[in-house]
Design brief:
The chain has 22 helices and no strands. It starts with a helix and ends with a helix. The chain has two domains: 159 residues, no CATH class; 116 residues, no CATH class. It is 71% helix and 0% strand. By secondary structure, the chain is mainly α.
Length: 333
């Protein structure tokens, strides 16, 4: 009976007056009071795209604890903001994720989603170009992005992020995320990223004591002439704690100035190693050896190594090559 009544409604929904829709609302609302989840889910899928779907029925479906029932109407069917806010405050992550995909999210709703949502919800709502965010929500998202590179990239792609929070996002991001932001940014955004990073680089460079790489460069260039400068050679340098030779070898193979590689490698983060190695098509064991060879650098704990491995697996060779080409022609770091 529910299926037949639903067919009747859908067949003429675009012609029904509000009082007719109200009758369907009463009848369908009565029929779904004691019906099984599978039938409710089918009803939700069918009426979700209808702009004038019965309000009462939609509300009952939206507050259902089962996301297969609530999801379709939460994603697209018209609902009062007050109802959506109540659902967002009281239901689980599946409901929050569905709401995050709705068009035209208000600041009040995104405030709740950012405050209560998990990582998947945060990533989803930031991707929603029709969602509006308060400065407080943007600030919370930027804080969360410290531990979530994907979220950082998605926040950085928004045009409505306040400038001071964009700068904070760039400065706290890992080097890999910074380069991805740079590679995908619009020209004006790219200039802002470069300006912020240049300021930091100048401050770091002013306090860093330069190393002398003359002897190491002579060694690796001789090896390159003989065809012996390869991944195995870099691995050997790293495992034998030959830091200058490791840097000189990476610089020579990547055609990046050795001063640039030195400054990249002198930081605590492992991302420059990951980028250079991925562009050179090195294996993970070589990457790990280089990371662990940097004396006194943080980021060599088991947790940090695991995170570096995850970043290495996620970084595409094409992205790494773009960043390396940038370092080759503009040694800004």
């Amino acid at each position: 009976m529910l299926r037949r009544i639903t067919d009747l409604f859908l067949g003429g929904a675009d012609q029904f007056a509000p009082e007719h829709v109200g009758i369907f609302d009463d009848v369908i609302g009565f029929l779904i009071a004691e019906i099984e989840t599978q039938a409710l889910a089918e009803l939700s899928r069918r009426i979700a795209p209808v702009p004038n779907a019965p309000d009462g029925v939609v509300r009952k479906l939206a507050i259902n604890d089962d996301i297969v029932v609530a999801g379709p109407v939460l994603r697209r069917t018209p609902l009062a903001d007050a109802d959506l806010e109540q659902i967002a405050e009281t239901r689980g992550q599946g409901h929050l994720l569905a709401i995050s995909e709705r068009p035209g999210l208000t600041e009040a709703l995104t405030n709740i989603l950012v405050r209560r949502g998990d990582g998947a919800v945060a990533r989803s709502v930031v991707t929603n170009r029709q969602a509006r965010f308060s400065p407080d929500s943007f600030s919370k998202l930027v804080q969360r992005a410290k531990l979530d590179g994907v979220l950082a990239e998605r926040i950085g792609s928004r045009t409505d992020i306040p400038p001071h929070l964009f700068r904070q996002l760039v400065l706290q991001a890992t080097d890999v995320v910074q380069k991805r932001l740079l590679a995908s940014a619009r020209p004006e955004t790219r200039e802002e990223i470069l300006r912020v990073l240049s300021q930091v680089s100048d401050a770091v460079g002013a306090t860093a004591a330069p190393r002398n790489y003359d002897a190491a460069l002579a060694i690796v260039r001789d090896m390159q002439k003989d065809g012996r400068l390869n991944e195995a050679a870099i691995t050997g340098f790293a495992r034998n704690q030959k830091y200058e030779e490791t840097i000189a070898g990476l610089a020579t193979l990547s055609a990046v100035p050795v001063e640039t590689v030195d400054r990249l490698m002198s930081g605590d983060r492992s991302d420059p190693v990951i980028i250079l190695a991925r562009a050179a098509n090195f294996g993970w064991e070589t990457v790990r050896a280089i990371i662990e060879s940097r004396g006194g650098a943080r980021g060599t704990s088991t947790q940090a190594i695991d995170a570096a491995k995850q970043n290495y697996d996620m970084l595409s060779p094409a992205t790494a090559e773009r960043v390396v080409r940038f370092w080759q022609v503009r040694p800004w770091f």
